[in-house]
């Protein structure tokens, strides 16, 4: 998909309305894909990357409400419902089910275009922050850890220990520093808490990459990332 062109899925079983919408959107700089049933819409959404859906309610096969419900189980893709129903209770129900907006038929083209533009306003892109050491990666945005392509399954404190140590892999971290940074409390000499978490971390990493050393013990001092 071209970077700056937004792609809209038109789900409308009336051929004339579907084609009119496609022409309107093309004229205003959007790319479109037209489908004519709810079932076809869900199939296309599994294989096509879209930026927004215009969704009619009265569709053959799966109706618009069913499409909306199934889509919301796996996606936050913006959906504008096209409906001839202008009852407040029904509109509220649609919004509660996950519609982002609605336009009643017959609709004003400029109003529709304005509502599409609102939904497609560019949101600030979250900076991707990744720490990496050997084949060990931490995604600081998603709070996930990976060895290669395998997710580790870290507890919050295990993640924080790795985050601290991987931020400065050459530094030796004393147990006191680890405890005070990760547990945010005063270290009172309880080595067992730190040792248990380090042991669990090593076991999880070894399970995904047997024989590779990631955490080195510096006896009498603390721990650091292992260069060997």
Which terms summarize this structure?
Arc Repressor Mutant, subunit A, alpha/beta, 4-stranded antiparallel β-sheet, 228 residues, Rossmann fold, 39% helix, 5-stranded parallel β-sheet
Describe this protein's structure.
The protein is of the alpha/beta class. The chain has 2 domains: 7-119, Rossmann fold (3-Layer(aba) Sandwich); 130-225, Arc Repressor Mutant, subunit A (Orthogonal Bundle), CATH 1.10.10.10. It is 39% helix and 21% strand. The chain is built from 8 helices and 12 strands. The protein has helices spanning 15-27, 38-47, 64-72, 88-96, 109-119, 156-167, 175-182, 191-208, and strands at residues 7-11, 31-35, 52-56, 79-83, 101-104, 130-133, 136-139, 144-147, 150-151, 173-174, 215-218, 222-225. The protein has a 5-stranded parallel beta sheet, sandwiched between helices. It has a 4-stranded antiparallel beta sheet with strand order 6-7-8-9, with helices on one face. Strand 1 (7-11), helix 1 (15-27) and strand 2 form a beta-alpha-beta unit. Helix 2 packs parallel to helix 3 (64-72). The longest helix is centred in the last third of the chain and has 18 residues, at 191-208. The radius of gyration is 26 Å and the shape is elongated. The mean pLDDT is 89.
Topology:
Elements: E1 7-11, H1 15-27, E2 31-35, H2 38-47, E3 52-56, H3 64-72, E4 79-83, H4 88-96, E5 101-104, H5 109-119, E6 130-133, E7 136-139, E8 144-147, E9 150-151, H6 156-167, E10 173-174, H7 175-182, H8 191-208, E11 215-218, E12 222-225
Parallel strand pairs: 1-2, 1-3, 3-4, 4-5
Antiparallel strand pairs: 6-7, 7-8, 8-9, 10-12, 11-12
Helix pairs in contact: 2-3
